[in-house]
Hints:
Structural class of chain A: mainly alpha
Radius of gyration of chain A: 28 Å
Membrane topology (chain A): Multi-pass membrane protein
Helix content of chain B: 40-55%
Low-confidence stretches of chain A: none
Oligomer: heterodimer
Number of helices of chain A: 3
Mean pLDDT of chain A: 88
Strand content of chain B: 15-25%
Number of domains of chain B: 1
Low-confidence stretches of chain B: none
Order of helices and strands of chain A: HHH
CATH superfamily of chain B: Spore Coat Polysaccharide Biosynthesis Protein SpsA, Chain A
CATH topology of chain B: Spore Coat Polysaccharide Biosynthesis Protein SpsA, Chain A
Order of helices and strands of chain B: HEHEHEHEHEEHEHHEEH
Largest interface: A-B, 31 and 42 residues
Number of domains of chain A: 1
Main location (chain A): endoplasmic reticulum
Subunit structure (chain A): Component of the dolichol-phosphate mannose (DPM) synthase complex.
CATH architecture of chain B: Alpha-Beta Complex
Largest sheet of chain B: 7 strands, mixed
Function (chain A): Stabilizer subunit of the dolichol-phosphate mannose (DPM) synthase complex; tethers catalytic subunit to the ER.
Number of strands of chain B: 9
Strand content of chain A: under 5%
Subcellular location (chain A): Endoplasmic reticulum membrane
Shape of chain A: elongated
Mean pLDDT of chain B: 90
Largest sheet of chain A: none
Amino acid sequence: MKHIVKILSLLVTISAFWIGLLQAAIVPRTHTWLLPIYFIVSLGCYGLLMVGIGLMQFPTCPQEALLLQKDIVEAKDFFKHKGVDVGSD
Amino acid sequence: MADEKETKGEKKYKYSILIPTYNERLNIAIIVYLVFKHLRDVDFEIIVVDDGSPDGTQEIVKQLQQLYGEDRILLRARAKKLGLGTAYIHGLKHASGDFVVIMDADLSHHPKYLPSFIKKQLETNASIVTGTRYVKGGGVHGWNLMRKLTSRGANVLAQTLLWPGVSDLTGSFRLYKKSVLEDVISSCVSKGYVFQMEMIVRATRKGYHIEEVPITFVDRVFGTSKLGGSEIVEYLKGLVYLLLTT
């Protein structure tokens, strides 16, 4: 099944549940009308939270740049000895 | 003798390392050196798909062929810049390995991770092993805060919309079973990095077993290329396309 169909079915199910809640009036109707807004706002907040956490925990590797420079020097040296002209950066 | 090896459960696989190049005269030599350094006991070939680089990349590759052997380094050039997807397809036609590794030519992908890709695949029998920069043990160097923010935001959006099953969608350091790459690539039509996203999302949808290994990514290009508004628009368009068609 295509992904978009999965997502739409999920939305349809949630909407059906919401409409059911409206009709059954277990929860006061004024609250129920606001539920979609709460849902979207929570989703937005969750997204922002995930971005923030991800940003704080963003893995960096400054030592890799140094190691790479070492590797480049090693490679250039090797090629110089083998007579391969690799030129300069 | 061959039977003895097979009953022991040992099978020697061959790996084709596919590297599309454009103006990577120095970098391709360094990559080749590093691949040979880190894959000592592995049967592999390097396939360089060069799109008519004016800086002499092909001449360097020919010298490397003299040094390492024409059976280890294959030069399969094209006349001009024709795009990444077609470069992979072109290289794939000449690949004789059981597995194909794709990687960038600008040294942002370090060959030292090749053994970990191979090991992961052998351990899990995965169809695809993809390198991820965003987990512990991985990482990125050379990005400022704004760049990290865009990357993180883009990733969260893609995860929410697409449920891709991998943590790094735009990464292009991957190992594929050859038949799997052939299957996935035939159904992808995007360009650029959206192409990389499309490949991994389609592979997930088709139910292929995908594993991840941490990799580090040293961005030496970012200072020169900017992530502007048009890139962001292209990315969003790509997301919507993938949302609707996969």
